[in-house]
Design goal:
single chain; four-stranded antiparallel beta sheet; alpha+beta; 11% strand; Immunoglobulin-like
Length: 811
């Protein structure tokens, strides 16, 4: 111990402290106990209320909830998975900070570790970590409440660090880091980000293969690849219950293939093309990577009194108060997306360095980083580059499971600062290299010239018209208002273009001063760090600041009960029933789920068959189908636009006995039949279940009864009594990957009826019927995950001990 020198470690501790300080400066209201309140977080709280209440009351996991869309698995809502020991490592890496501070801190740490592993000096590593962490999109998604997405993004650099190490011949260190980082990313539970991470990894792997063949090192490439496959397997096993459940469930959701034959030109084996590409980045909108508010910024923005719109409002007779109200939420965004919370900004100076990197960085890193960036941008264009998008939707496995193709820019937000830092390292280490200086100026002329065009001649390329302007006209806004709004959009573009050019010039001046020996290296790095931090931090502050925070109480209970909610809760004594709230966006809102079992809800992976029901019947208010779903209450608006309850006496109840059935050949006939038959007397049955009806005899015992005795989200008990065998339909959503039926404690088969519901033949007599949700993925998968996690931790500990004893480098 006497030879142990801790001095080199001080800078690393200093870096951690600096990252923590920057993080808490942005989130200082959290020190006062405040939290970010967003629509997505509020919807999550509403969607998960039944699940979390059940967990708190019983100590068990429900794994299913009936609070949304009639009923659905809780897998992608809120589940504490068995064997999830890797979460302990996540808490250590993020210092157990509260959300969303821990996500930002993770952005810094992950990229810093990547650069240190690659031989970057710590001070340069700090600048690089800041460049990555301060990307505008990474903050905007936090303001929107997309915490799991942000969490997964934080692990992208660590995964790539592990891959790079393994292909460098550091097999053990690379494999362990890859397994742990990928395992942590999978635990964050945002598979779309993991998918994009794997695309980056695939491009990197192809690049390594090319160099391995060229350098005749193919055996080493195969060894590294094999070890990484094992590492990825460990990561999967550590998260097996969640991944298994998601894989099983996704086939039956809107991310799986539809059984209906309509609109086949839009269908893939996953999401429909129009749904998947709804959020497509505009081709010109890609300029936001270097000019943040190129397209106006967010969908609604507050403008000041110096704007064209304000002046025109005053000139046309509006008072200052009314003008300010209009200015508080102006639709300044004029891009292709339906709406947006803000742009994807990678940093003007960093884009300049990225362009420089294309010229001067060694091929081993340059080409795969450039390739991944281009792929990221092209895929983000979605329906604006449809041929390319359709090819990937149809032929790249798994790609069509994800929506919001603009999210592919996450890849560019990693590759741009990464290549930029390689370029910066190169020029700082070789200040006298004339070739580097030549390309330095070339890069400045390229990016500076492009930006200058948009400063001087923006109207040459754009008319600043938004797709929403037509709606403004229909709403009564005069032509002079639209013209002023377009002028402000133009002014916003010019102002941010000038701003970007300013920060690029600042960076160029610092580096040129270093070239001329007028600035020492340490000072140059500090100044460049400050340029990146101030530039990107200021943009982030536009979209996430102290105004984004609210009191803990407002966040924890986001939906105060309305009089309609209170009336239903106080007056309804049934164990289970559903509510259709028409005063909200019924199928894109979880506020109703906070208090009731809702016909609607908020989720991106609802069951496909239920979505079919929404599209064809529920969105049109079809009463027969709503009665089938036991919709006992409607919440509607009165003349004062206040929500009031309406009782529906025609709801079918929790279960009923069908007198007859109608056999259909396919899903098209099955869903169409719901509009043809009396669903209270006739069950619609797919011919696949014809064997289940062998004991059926038309008619029913008129004295027969069935009623719900006990309710829990994962367990339902009914009492049945009849003198004959009966076909019973249950107003519960059919999902056979975990729901098991029992009659008097003995397993019994059940099948689907009425397109989405459960049904079964019940023999004559008095019986207790029970449904239990018991998916194997939770118990079996949890045990495997626990074993894999323990083994992985032991391997990592053994590696750590060996490294310390031999006093080798970790990586």
């Amino acid at each position: 111990m006497k030879n142990l020198n801790l001095k080199p470690l001080l800078i690393y501790f200093g870096a951690i402290a600096l990252f923590l300080i920057i993080t808490m400066v942005f989130f200082y209201p959290m020190l006062e106990g405040k939290r970010i309140k967003t629509t997505d977080i509020s919807n999550y709280i509403g969607a998960s209320k039944e699940i979390t209440d059940f967990r708190e009351n019983t100590g068990e996991e429900a794994l299913w909830t009936n609070s949304m869309f009639g009923g659905m698995p809780a897998y992608q809502i809120s589940v504490l998975w068995k064997g999830n020991y890797i979460g302990l490592l996540d808490k250590a890496l993020t210092l157990n900070l509260p959300t969303p501070a821990k996500q930002v801190f993770l952005y810094f740490i992950g990229f810093f570790v990547l650069l240190i592993i690659l031989g970057f000096k710590p001070w340069l590593g700090i600048s690089g970590a800041t460049a990555y962490a301060m990307s505008s999109y990474f903050f905007i998604i936090l303001e929107a409440g997309h915490n799991s997405k942000a969490h997964a993004i934080g692990y992208i650099p660590l995964i790539l660090a592990g891959l790079i190490l393994a292909y460098r011949g550091k097999y053990s260190g690379g494999a362990i880091l890859t397994a742990l980082a990928l395992g942590l990313q999978l635990a964050a539970n945002h598979l779309q980000i993991t998918y994009y991470t794997m695309l980056i990894a695939l491009i990197f792997g192809i690049s390594e293969l090319v160099f391995a063949v060229r350098d005749q090192k193919f055996a080493g490439f195969l060894k590294s690849t094999g070890i990484l496959v094992v590492a990825a397997l460990f990561a999967v096993l550590m998260n097996l219950p969640n991944l298994w459940a998601t894989s099983e469930y996704s086939k039956y959701t809107i991310r799986g293939k539809s059984e209906l034959s309509d609109n086949q030109h839009l269908k893939t084996s996953g999401l429909d093309l129009d749904y998947a590409t709804q959020w497509s980045y505009g081709i010109a909108e890609t300029m936001t990577l270097v000019i943040p508010d190129f397209m106006g910024g967010s969908s609604s923005k507050e403008l000041g009194k110096s704007t064209h719109t304000y002046k025109e409002l005053i000139r046309n007779g509006l008072g200052e108060t009314q003008a300010n109200q209009i200015l508080s939420r102006l639709p300044v965004y004029w891009g292709d997306q339906p709406f947006t919370s803000g742009p994807v900004y990678a940093g003007a100076f960093l884009v300049f360095l990225f362009i420089l990197g294309i010229f001067i960085v060694e091929n081993r890193y340059k080409w795969w980083l450039l390739g991944a960036t281009l792929l990221s941008v092209l895929l983000s264009w979605g329906h604006n580059f449809m041929g390319f998008t359709e090819f990937f939707m149809h032929y790249l496995p798994g790609y069509n499971k994800f929506r919001a193709v603009s999210m592919t820019l996450v890849m560019a937000e990693f590759t741009i600062p990464f290549l930029a830092l390689f370029a910066l390292k190169k020029i700082l280490e070789n200040p006298a290299d004339l070739n580097i200086r030549k390309y330095f100026w070339w890069s400045f002329y390229i990016i500076g010239g492009i930006i200058l065009i948009f400063i001087l001649l923006p109207g040459t390329f754009f008319n600043f018209t938004s797709a929403g302007d037509e709606q403004l006209v229909k709403s009564g806004f005069p032509d002079w208002f639209i013209a002023a709004l377009k002028a402000d959009r133009k002014a916003i573009l010019q102002a941010d273009a000038l701003r970007s050019l300013f920060f690029i010039i600042l960076g160029v001046v610092v580096i040129w001063a270093y070239f001329k020996n007028k600035l020492r290296l340490q000072y140059a790095i500090v100044l460049l760090f400050a340029i990146v931090l101030i530039d990107m931090g200021a943009v982030n502050w536009r979209y996430l600041n102290h105004k984004s925070f609210e009191s803990p109480a407002a966040v924890k209970k986001p939906f105060p009960p309305t009089q309609a909610d209170e009336y239903i809760l106080q007056n309804e004594k049934d164990l289970s029933y559903r509510v259709f709230n028409t005063t909200v966006s019924s199928f894109n809102d979880a506020s109703t789920s906070y208090y009731h079992k809702s016909i609607g809800g908020y989720h991106g992976a609802k069951l496909r068959r239920y979505q079919d029901l929404i599209d064809r019947y529920l969105s049109k208010g079809d009463m027969e189908v709503l009665n089938m779903l036991n919709t006992k209450y409607f919440i509607v608006a009165n003349e004062q636009r206040q929500p009031i309850p309406q009782f529906n006496s025609n709801a079918f109840g929790n279960a009923w006995i069908a007198e007859k059935y109608q056999m259909v050949n396919n899903a098209d006939e099955e869903i169409a039949a719901l509009d043809t038959f009396n669903l209270k007397t006739t069950a619609i049955i797919d011919k696949r279940f014809s064997e289940e009806l062998r004991s059926f005899q038309p008619g029913k015992d008129t004295t027969a009864t069935i009623r719900l005795l006990a309710y829990a989200p994962n367990k339902l008990n009914y009492e049945f009594n009849s003198s004959k065998n009966e076909l019973v339909v249950f107003s519960e959503i059919y999902y056979d990957k975990g729901w098991n039926a029992f009659i008097d404690g003995k397993p019994a088969s059940h099948f689907r009826a009425n397109y989405v519901l459960r049904s079964m033949m019940v023999p004559a007599g008095k019986h207790e019927i029970e449904f239990r949700f018991e998916p194997e993925v939770y118990t079996v998968g949890g045990n495997i995950a626990a074993g894999a996690s323990i083994l992985m931790f032991l391997l990592a500990l053994a590696y750590l001990v060996i490294v310390i004893r031999k006093r080798n480098e970790f990586f």
